Amino acid sequence: MEHNLKKTLSPFHLNEEIILKNRLYFSAMGIDISYNDGRASPEFIQFYKNIINGGCGMVILGNASIHPSTRLQQRGLCLHNDAHAEALYPLISYGRKNCCEVVVQLQHYGTQGSSEYTNTPLLSPSDSIDSRRKEKKGDYGIRVMTLDDIIKVRHQFVEAAKRAHLAGARIVQLQASNGYLLSSFLSPYTNHRLDEYGGNPFRRMKLLIDVISDIKQALPNLKVSIRLGIDDCLGERGQKPELLAPCLDMLYSLGVAFIECSMSIKETFSWMLNSTCESKRLFHRGIKTIRSATCLPLGFAGFIPDLNDAEQLMCELNVELVGMTRAIFADNELILKSITGREGEIYKCHFDGNCFRDKSNPSIDRVYCCVNPRYQRPKNIVYQR
Ligand SMILES: Cc1cc2nc3c(=O)[nH]c(=O)nc-3n(C[C@H](O)[C@H](O)[C@H](O)COP(=O)(O)O)c2cc1C
């Protein structure tokens, strides 16, 4: 097949020091195969080495929990002590040696976490959660954050960033999308505060700005990128790109490295999992709105099956980076096979969202794939769509 992958395969200069060999990245995938204490296990390290060997310019490690009080899965990655940093160090060094930047995503789950492994309440900006989240009030409950809680969480982000730095990371990504804590502050759906952390889009962004500023002050050489939830897929009730657009100058002034656009929250996850014309249209329209509001480097991941699509969308949406999670999970060598004329050998992702459903399936131990022979889902696991 004839290729024109001029933009996709060109290097990207994040700054003088950090040059990505191409524009393709593996967007965060919380695969929950760490040890129970949150340290990266040999299985975890090998999973990511396989991705790195496949040729992308950057890998974002998913969901590193910033504090013992916020967890979702028992085997989720954590980054709140030196042992966590030590366990990640060999992977980040491996990435560096193989010209692949390994970014660590810092995560506070907020009300989308679970008290099961923490025995603490879930933190929320306001007492305005929907009925599904209220069900959690039966266990340790949901706690509306006081100003004191905010100070503690800011500190936890800085401590986690220090561990990422200790592990050798040059970039961290703040998870400010998909309904988790930072994005729950950004969204009018979950943030009804009347103090300086709520009331309008600028004030809703204050926690994110505080966290970025704190990290920058503590670690001036560490680059901070943001995974930004640009649309909750709730229409007028939720976050929309138009609400965020006027606030993006604040991120620019703080020297954010790049923004990865994402959409949907727990209540609307199906928008991101199932590829429909409507979900793609909404996402692409949102990215264009964000593009017109900032000159910060932009990336996004969502339903990109191959490099030709990546190239076309990168040009059409005028973004600098393009993420692929499920397609690269389905075939870790997708990039290498594509650029060496072996497209016919690629295991192609079905984009059915089943790998994501594995995360909350108590009868299986990890995330599987329906096409990658390395991670083949057990035959007895069948999901209804
Ligand atoms: C199994 C699975 C786990 C994921 N874990 C994370 C995560 O830890 N953090 C995150 O920000 N996004 C996570 N995502 C979302 C992806 O980063 C990405 O935005 C989404 O899958 C859409 O991209 P794709 O169509 O290329 O897969 C996950 C997705 C899947 C399928």
Instruction: Describe the main β-sheet briefly.
Output: 8 strands, parallel, barrel
Report the principal-axis shape: globular
Strands of the biggest beta sheet: in what spatial order? 3-4-5-8-9-10-11-12
Distance between the termini: 34 Å
Question: Unreliable segments (pLDDT under 50, ≥5 consecutive)?
Answer: none
Specify Rg, calculated over alpha carbons: 19 Å
Provide an overview of this structure.
This protein is of the alpha/beta class. It has one domain (12-359): Aldolase class I (TIM Barrel), CATH 3.20.20. Helices cover 34% and strands 14% of the residues. The protein is built from 15 helices and 12 strands. It has helices at residues 42-53, 82-97, 131-134, 147-166, 181-186, 201-204, 206-218, 241-244, 248-253, 270-273, 277-293, 307-316, 326-330, 334-339, 354-358; strands spanning 12-13, 19-20, 24-26, 58-65, 101-107, 122-124, 142-144, 171-176, 223-231, 259-263, 298-301, 321-323. The strands form 3 sheets. Strands 3-4-5-8-9-10-11-12 form an 8-stranded parallel beta barrel, surrounded by 6 helices. A two-stranded antiparallel ribbon has the order 1-2. Strands 6-7 form a two-stranded parallel sheet. The radius of gyration is 19 Å and the shape is globular. Bound molecules: flavin mononucleotide (FMN). The site of flavin mononucleotide has 23 residues, from strand 4, helix 13 and helix 15. InterPro entries: Aldolase_TIM, NADH_flavin_oxidoreductase, OxRdtase_FMN_N. Residues 10-342 form the NADH:flavin oxidoreductase/NADH oxidase N-terminal domain. Its EC number is 1.6.99.1. It is an enzyme of class 1 (oxidoreductase).
